[in-house]
Write a structure and sequence with these properties.
The complex is a heterodimer of chains A (339) and B (503). With 339 residues, chain A is mostly helical. Chain A is 67% helix and 5% strand. With 503 residues, chain B is α/β, with parallel strands linked by helices. In chain B, the strands form 5 sheets. A 6-stranded mixed sheet of chain B has the order 13-14-15-10-16-17, with helices on both faces. Chain B has a 4-stranded antiparallel sheet with strand order 9-8-11-12, with helices on one face. A 3-stranded parallel sheet of chain B has the order 3-4-5, sandwiched between helices. Classes of the chains: A mainly alpha (339), B alpha/beta (503). At the A-B interface, helix 6 and helix 7 of A face strand 3, helix 3, helix 4, helix 13 and helix 14 of B. Chain B: InterPro entries: AAA+_ATPase, ABC_transporter-like_ATP-bd, ABC_transporter-like_CS, ABC_transpr_CbiO/EcfA_su, ECF_ABC_transporter_ATP-bd, P-loop_NTPase.
């Protein structure tokens, strides 16, 4: 029984693949098929863990985005000629806003263009929601390079602190009842015990982490050097994006430089933290297949024109995880016998 | 061992260097562990030698599942992944945690959390294990489990274990030596017999042994039973003093609980509980961790939402009472007594309480003075010792002179002298005609004060009867004296002394 879960990064590659495909206007049938494949994969592979709910939240969010896009598209836009279906009353606008119109005639062309754009939004949101519903966020954090370890630990601690915070508010409220305190405004009486509680908890946690060797092997010089390289890589990539968006030459060079710096920085920083990983997540055949289909999907939509053939190819590629990925167990990496 | 606030926890933290590295302070003198000085090494550099488990282990959890928590320390040490895997499996087996490996840490019971915390430090293969009150929050059975695992670790791994503990009756049978922290900065180190012979605070078995001049002084129930034959004969003709149990039928009911059901999401915490408490009764509620004790107590003051059933305080539904009307009927001391405190000094707390209970200014302080004559009124409530804080909360609650007093785990963190004071207070309250309900794991306390015991298991009431009858019928919950003198119906040391005096 191979009862493991797919590497979270593979799920993200799949989600990004669908999102990129959707953004390249592959045509309405392809968009619909992308949504269907995302839904099918999520419903057959998701676990019962809390993050699996991300998909249904994504659907609702997507619908809202779709509606808003439709409303804006119908009421506020540049005129598009075509068959006029009905005419909305026009709102007079000052002269300097010429070119924009609120209300006015609604053409069938405008409706269909807006609907396709709305659908694209919907698909994008759905793709991201599907990836977050399937990828185990805790494993994702654990799979991050060594330098990010501290950020990961901080995130996990903060997720466990929120429930504590809620219980401590409850306890303080109950205590006020038990003392028969009926004053209404009592910020101090509520806030002070909660802060004291949280502070105490933080101190205890710090002591526990200290006495369990947290941060034992961190050499600060190596890490500082590594983070400086990382910072410059982020700067280079940002410049690259800016150049790309402004359609100025040199974007590719900035991107390449940024990526190279990123790799070097991660390498240096990871070398300086001697930290090992307990039961690291494995990247095996299924992960490679999902990654490969996702890349093919993006290449296909970038290079090929819209046709029935490409549309069906897109659908088949988007739905591949259905056949290769194991069902998410929800449990932490239960590795099968093959390992 | 030592009194509350005497410095037991500080001593433990000194050994692994948390004092002074984490807490600050001035250290003079030298502490070395396997040749390494805590002066020169931070606690994180001593993890391969010392493991420490604090008073509330769940506050020290860093990750969110059992397995990751156990591996956390090793990841920081940079131990290769294969070695880690092997050590985690070994430790899971050693502490019997294999079934819990994928559980979320927040769902663990007290005993399980304690075992996970111990496992998490054991994977780093320390030579010394420091435990701060490992059993204080545990029911007798879970405590027994943790302690027997510790005993096995000592036998199997040759581990050195240092435990700070108030409930000596639980740990005395396992220890080789005692460090008695005297509280004035001095410590005394010696064999358990020596320390016990000199100490005034001791578990019932030692008190009995001292009183009867048994030689050698018994430390365990087993030792005492062997020596108890003459006493048993002497007591055979005497009968234990009848516990002052009020005529239940004749006195008015203060609390009625009818078919109470409490549900948290999908879990039924209480499955239809029925019972009544009349004036002047002292009712102890016992049962495993998670049996529903706290839910039951919470429902009597309306802080636990009720799914169905009725909770009537003096005839009125508890959840609908508020403010003065509530606190003049029922006084509730929660498990974390500090929850009730939000003032900045003892005096301020007393003024708040006077106002809330609408009594003459100074009433609370007067009560506090009776409970605790030597309290500094300007002290911050957080700086008080556990026992002092309990007295302060009791004073606040008693200011409204409630007819029913409810205590949830009152003896957690209390030493023997503070416990004795609490016992006196509770007896006095019962004598005044007030009722007391207490939920506790402390069998010795129950044996001393309770007139009636209710036993809960999995949200159901499985036994309800006189203290004597219930306590002697269950081996795990029997007090030491009754174990020694079985089949005689004796529960406490004071019963025996008063019976012997009268004869």
């Amino acid at each position: 029984m191979n009862q493991r879960s797919l590497h979270p990064f593979a799920w993200w590659a799949w989600g990004v693949g669908i999102a990129v495909t959707a953004s390249q206007s592959p045509g309405t049938p392809a968009l619909v098929l992308l949504c269907i494949s995302a839904a099918m994969v999520v419903y057959s592979k998701k676990s019962d863990q809390p993050w699996a709910k991300a998909f249904s939240i994504g659907v609702r969010l997507g619908l809202i985005a779709f509606l808003i896009r439709m409303i804006i598209g119908v009421t506020l836009s540049v005129p598009i000629p075509g068959n006029t279906l009905f005419t909305l009353p026009t709102l007079p606008l000052p002269d300097w806003m010429a070119g924009i119109r609120i209300g006015g005639p609604v053409t069938s062309e405008r409706l269909s263009i807006t609907a396709i754009e709305g659908l694209t939004f919907f698909t994008l949101i759905l793709a991201i929601a599907a990836a977050s519903a399937l990828a185990n966020p805790k494993q994702g954090l654990r799979a991050l390079p060594g330098v990010m370890h501290q950020a990961g630990v901080a995130l996990i601690i903060s997720t466990t602190l929120i429930p504590h915070f809620v219980t401590s508010i409850q306890r303080v409220k109950q205590a006020r009842r038990l003392r028969g305190d009926q004053q209404r405004i009592a910020f101090r009486k509520i806030a002070v015990p909660i802060f004291e509680d949280s502070l105490q908890r933080a101190i205890n946690l710090g002591a526990a982490m200290e006495s369990r060797g947290y941060g034992l092997h961190d050499s600060s010089t190596g890490r500082r050097f590594g983070s400086q390289i990382l910072l410059s890589s982020i700067v280079a990539i940002t410049i690259g994006i800016t150049l790309f968006l402004a359609a100025i030459e040199g974007a590719a060079i900035a991107f390449a430089l940024g990526t190279a710096l990123l790799v070097i920085g991660l390498f240096v920083a990871s070398k300086s933290t001697i930290r090992t990983r307990y039961r690291p997540q494995v990247w095996k055949g299924a992960e490679w297949i999902v990654l490969a289909t996702s890349i093919t999907l993006i290449l296909l939509v970038l290079l090929e024109n819209q046709s029935t053939l490409t549309t069906s190819a897109i659908f088949i590629l988007a739905i591949t995880p259905l056949f290769v990925a194991p069902k998410e167990s929800g449990l932490k990496n239960v590795i099968g016998v093959a390992h | 061992m030592g009194q509350t606030g005497s410095g037991k926890s500080s001593l433990l933290k000194l050994i692994n260097g948390l004092v002074p590295h984490h807490t600050g302070g001035i250290l003079s003198g030298e502490i070395t562990v396997a040749g390494r000085s805590t002066r020169m090494h931070r606690p994180r550099e001593l993890v391969d030698l010392i493991g420490i488990v604090g008073q509330s282990p769940s506050e020290g959890f860093v990750t969110d599942t059992v397995e990751e928590e156990i591996a956390f320390g090793m990841e920081s040490l940079g131990i290769p992944s294969e070695v880690m895997r092997k050590r985690v499996e070994e430790t899971l087996d050693l502490l019997g945690l294999a079934q819990l490996r994928n559980r979320s840490l927040s769902t663990l019971s007290g005993g399980e959390a304690q075992r996970v915390a111990i496992a998490a430090v054991l994977t780093m293969h320390p030579k010394v294990l420091l435990l701060d009150e490992p059993t204080s929050a545990l029911d007798p059975i879970a405590a027994e489990e943790v302690l027997s695992i510790l005993a096995r670790l000592v036998h199997d791994l040759g581990l050195t274990i240092i435990i700070a503990e108030h409930r000596l009756e639980r740990v005395l049978q396992f220890v080789d030596r005692i460090i008695h922290v005297l509280g004035d900065g001095q410590v005394r180190l010696g064999l358990p017999e020596e320390i016990m012979a000199q100490s005034s605070s001791a578990p019932p078995v030692v008190l009995l042994g001292k009183d009867q001049d048994w030689n050698p002084l018994p430390l365990t129930v087993r030792d005492a039973r062997r020596l108890a034959e003459p006493l048993r004969e002497k007591l055979a003709n005497l009968s234990p003093p009848i516990r002052k149990s009020p005529e239940i039928k004749s006195l008015p009911l203060i609390l009625e609980i009818k078919k109470l059901v409490v549900q948290y999401e999908k879990n039924l915490a209480l499955k239809g509980i029925d019972f009544e408490v009349s004036q002047g009764e002292v009712v102890a509620i016992m049962g495993r961790n998670g049996a529903g004790k706290s839910s039951l107590l919470g429902s009597t003051v309306g802080i636990t939402p009720i799914k169905s059933g009725q909770v009537l305080l003096n005839g009125a539904p508890a959840a609908e009472l508020n403010g003065k009307a509530l606190i003049s009927l029922v006084g509730f001391v929660p498990q974390e007594a500090t929850d009730l405190l939000y003032g900045e000094s003892v005096l301020q707390e007393c003024t708040f309480a006077d106002r809330d209970s609408q009594v003459d200014p100074g009433t609370t302080y007067k009560i506090l003075n009776q409970l605790l004559p030597d309290i500094t009124e300007s002290a911050h409530p957080r700086d008080l010792s556990e026992g002092q804080r309990l007295c302060l909360v009791l004073a606040i609650v008693l200011a409204a002179s409630p007819k029913l007093l409810i205590l949830d785990e009152p003896t957690r963190g209390l030493d023997y002298s503070a416990k004795l004071r609490l016992i006196k207070i509770l007896r006095a309250m019962a004598a005044e005609g007030r009722s007391v309900i207490l939920a506790t794991h402390d069998v010795e306390l129950v044996a001393e004060v309770a007139t009636r015991v209710i036993f809960l298991a999995e949200g159901e009431k499985i036994a309800d009867g006189s203290t004597l009858e219930i306590l002697t019928s269950s081996p795990a919950f029997a007090p030491q004296i009754s174990k020694i003198l079985a089949p005689g119906k004796w529960l406490t040391f004071s019963e025996i002394t008063s019976a012997l005096e009268q004869s």
